[in-house]
Amino acid sequence: MEITQQCVVALTWTLKDTLGEELDLLDDPAEFLMGGHDLLPIIEEALLGHAIGDRLNLQIEPEQAFGDFNDQLLFLEPRHLFPPELEAGLTMEGSALPAGCNPNAPRDAFYTVTDIYPEHVVLDGNHPLAGIAIRISLRIEGVREATEEEIGSGSTGTGFFRIQPLHDAQPGDETLH
Asked: What's the pTM?
């Protein structure tokens, strides 16, 4: 089956920065809905017309992926507003920021705790790959028709590099996929 809009594609990949440093490796295929909101548009466009077993190598610039780094999305917040078990690397929804945090911090963003100091916590609302050109080597592991439910929701439930809050994750479980 050839990849078209509104089908589901199973992918594996290796993601690197432009210096060749590996950022992410997906060995077990994950499924994504074409024509939904699972994949970056540039990746969807490149996949169209391909089939199982095909490999693609793409270089994706920040403006085609996660945008440029925005220093206006960095916030220094008082440490006492956060629970004692807070750890660097955890992600939280902006709507769940504690009362007393900067009212200018967008509440529809996800924030990663990048640093914890005795008096302050640094929150970063940028995607971890913002400002980075990436190279992704994809392998198409499967292609199938999408279900009505997947088409209706616009997703198979696996977003491409979307930041999700790590409510139940253990430290070290934070991945980009």
From this structure: 0.76
